[in-house]
Amino acid sequence: MSESALWREAARRLFPGGVNSPVRSFRSVGGEPFVAVRGERGRVWDADGREYVDFIGAFGPHILGHAPPAVVQAIAEVAEQGTAFGALTPHEVELGRRISEATGLERLRFVNSGTEATMTAIRLARAATGRNVIVKFDGCYHGHADGLLVRGGSGLSTFGLSDSAGVPEAIAQLTAVLPFNDADALKGWFDAHGEETAAVIVEPVAGNMGLVPPREEFLEVLRRIPRRHGALLIADEVITGFRLRYGLSGLLPEADLVCLGKVIGGGLPIGAFGGRADLMDLLAPSGPVYQAGTLAGNPLAMAAGIAVLDALATGEPYRRAEQLARHLENGLETAVRRAAVPASVVRVGSMLTLFFRAQPPANFAEAKECDTAAFARFHRAMFDAGVLLPPSQFETWFVSAAHTEADIDQAVTAAHRALLELHAGSE
Ligand SMILES: Cc1ncc(COP(=O)(O)O)c(C=O)c1O
């Protein structure tokens, strides 16, 4: 048995499904959990010493690649001084100040995950408006708080259905689920239910149904309509914040509350949310909305975040990561054309998805039309060629500033071969 197989076997006995987060099971590509033991720049190594070009990038944080020396050093230095105090530390102020200056958020609060950020932003929106109903978009993921694990209802009902066992329908029914990119559906919702709606939560660029950019008219309605009805707009920038550029994506500057995570913690557990002072001061201890965290503002996560933001502030890592991602996009597009498979490449900045659908999807219903069996075969072929892709058609690939031209060339060459094999298999 290989080393990886031994670890998987041990993990299967300890953890449900052998993992601590479902997508790591690789089930949707018919694979086995990847056992990672080391990462450096754009590459990772498994427990058997095999090396891979990595486009999972820990699902978003690693815009500087794995183990950037400045980040590792910052974590080590801070760890020597103590890892947690349950008290205010200068590190929180340092990272908070950088984020506030770059985003314009007047006040923010650090939490330990994106899930906590969105969950609390919603509690805050409900308290601020005195309303209970939340609007989300089908295919957007905002973490696993009960009220956000909701999928679209059928027929005329836009009120949601529970998308996980254990989420009471009574909670799911407080969340309406609308199609992403559908300006008319959003307008229609507010015409009918505007007065009950506390908030609309949205990923400005959807990254959890594969990468789906927003249409301008959709953004325009998001910016205007909730506010007109006294509802708040929550921009979930857990993926896009500090990933597309230094600060927020810039797509929804009117958002009342913004959620952050991933990049701002440099690969350590983090989340944050923020907004105007008058709204944020509703939070305890200033106001009546309760929220807390034993390890919130943890010195290690703060130190990692400061080091990452200092490297990003020059703008150079964004230029580099985007240049590499464009190279990857072009290479994949050529490979798709040559192999004549029905597929499309979507890229925004350093994020990318290869959809097994001739036209890029505009919403989740279209994304679900992708040939997921073809994606699974493609994933396996890329894996065998030493390229680690996110293990689902509905995830985004992350390119880092620490990938090299050689990494991208290896991926493009592997994709050419994999797509030609797919084409041959379909004849
Ligand atoms: C857009 C978005 N929001 C929220 C979350 C939840 O973050 P976490 O996994 O840190 O709880 C994620 C996680 O992937 C995400 O992509």
Description:
38% of the residues lie in helices and 15% in strands. It has 427 residues and is α/β, with parallel strands linked by helices. It folds into 2 domains: 3-67 and 315-426, Aspartate Aminotransferase, domain 1 (Alpha-Beta Complex), CATH 3.90.1150.10; 69-312, Type I PLP-dependent aspartate aminotransferase-like (Major domain) (Aspartate Aminotransferase, domain 2, 3-Layer(aba) Sandwich). The strands form 4 sheets. The chain has a 7-stranded mixed beta sheet, sandwiched between helices. A 4-stranded mixed beta sheet has the order 1-2-3-15. A 3-stranded antiparallel beta sheet has the order 13-14-16, covered by helices on one side. A hairpin with a 2-residue loop joins β13 and β14 (351-355). α3 (90-103) packs parallel to α9 (299-312), α10 (316-339) packs parallel to α13 and α12 (372-384) packs across α13 (405-426). The mean pLDDT is 96. Bound molecules: pyridoxal-5'-phosphate. Pyridoxal-5'-phosphate binds at residues 59, 113-115, 118, 141-143, 203, 207-208, 236, 238-239, 261, 271.
Taking pLDDT < 50 over at least 5 consecutive residues as the criterion, the unreliable ranges are: none
Question: Could you tell me the number of beta strands?
Answer: 16
User: What's the rounded overall pLDDT mean?
Assistant: 96
- Strand proportion, as a percent range, falls in 15-25%
Structural class: alpha/beta
Radius of gyration, Cα only, in angstroms? 21 Å
Q: Any idea of the CATH class of the largest domain? A: Alpha Beta
Query: What is the domain total for the residues?
Result: 2
Task: Please state the second-level CATH architecture of the largest domain.
Answer: 3-Layer(aba) Sandwich
Q: Given the C-alpha coordinates, what overall shape results?
A: globular
Order of helices and strands: HEEEHHEHEEEHEHEHEEEHHHEEHHEEH
Q: N-to-C terminal Cα separation, in Å?
A: 36 Å
CATH topology of the largest domain: Aspartate Aminotransferase, domain 2
Please give the order of strands in the largest beta sheet: 4-12-11-10-9-5-8
Task: Say which CATH homologous superfamily of the largest domain is assigned.
Answer: Type I PLP-dependent aspartate aminotransferase-like (Major domain)
Helicity, as a percent range? 25-40%
Q: Which sheet architecture does the biggest sheet show?
A: 7 strands, mixed
Number of helices: 13
The molecules bound to the chains, other than polymers, are: pyridoxal-5'-phosphate
